[in-house]
Structure formats: C-alpha cells, structure tokens
Amino acid sequence: MRTLLVALPGLVLAGIGLTHPHHLDASTAQWWQNMHIILAVIFPLLGAAQWVLLTDSPKPVRYLGRAATFGYVVFYGALDALAGIGGGALAIANGGRSPSDAPIFKIGNQLGTVGAWCFFAASVAIAVCALIDNRLKAIPGAAFLLPGSYLFLSSHIYWPKGVLACACIAIGMAATSYASASGSSPIEPSTRT
Questions:
Q1: pLDDT tens sequence across 48-106
Q2: What is the dihedral of CA 91, 17, 52, 172, to 10 degrees?
Q3: With contact defined as beta carbons under 8 Å apart, do 119 and 148 qualify?
C-alpha cells in the first residue's frame, strides 16, 4: 500500500500536466487558475511521499532531508499560489496577461526554483540512503527518481518534459519504497522520529 501511495502524487501530477496550458492568455486563464487550485493540494502530497521515504534514513540525513522536503512544500507552494492561482485570476480579470502581472510571475518563479532545488536535495538523500541500505535493489528507484527530480527543476509539470519528470518521480518513489519493503532498516531499527 505504501508503494502505491508514494507513487500516486507523481502520477496525478503527470496526468494533470497533460492538460497544463503552455501559455497563459484569456482562453486558458480559467483552467490555469482552477488547475492550480487542484495542484495546491497535490504538490504537498509529493513532499509527503518524500517524508515517508526518508523514514528509514539515518537521523541526520532524515532531518536534513525532511527540512529540504519542508522547503519544497513551502516554496513550491508559493509558486503555485502566486503564478498559478494569482496569475490565473489576474488574467481572468484583465482578459489575458498584462505587463503589470510580471512581478507576480517573477517572484513566483524565483520561489519555485528554490522549492524545486529543495525537492531535488531530498530526492538525492532518499536515493543515496536507499542505495546504501538496499544496494542493488535500490538502483531502479534511484535511476528514475534522480533524473525525474532533476528534470523537475526546470520543467514544472508542462508537457512533455514535466510530464516525463513527474512520471519518473512516481516510478522512482514506488521502486524505492518496494526495495525497502522487505524489512526494517539495519541503520537505525528502533529509533524513528
């Protein structure tokens, strides 16, 4: 069940990414805004999946990885709220994009970049700990999670690169969860926090 749950947010994001408009204008503004309202719930679930996958990591890595996950949720959520929901609302009100909405997209993208790097850092922590703990069984998870997380840095969920990124993240998280499901971690068996 855990394997399915950690994969689900990435799969949902990939599906929604298939409908993400490449340009915000009067014709796409309503869906742009509504889609980002939906994404405001889904993006944090991607961080929750990272949080779960960090459970078996050594304490220092777990704390740093979860701090990075928290950074992803906060900063990427700010991108979603500003450029997604707010940008869509402005485009609806103005009948499309206008020069006055540029600052909201600029700060949103800057915050989203910080969030995406936090996501990447947490994914690296997950992959490295899984490889140390589960060796060969963890290679497929790392082989999908790390490239997907790297693509996510610059692609958001836009088709095609962003959809591929989210699908790779989902597969990588599922494979990592599956590889570690055979038992508890020998690193720190009874002191989870």
A1: 999 999 998 999 999 999 999 999 999 999 999 999 999 999 999 999 999 999 999 99
A2: -150
A3: no
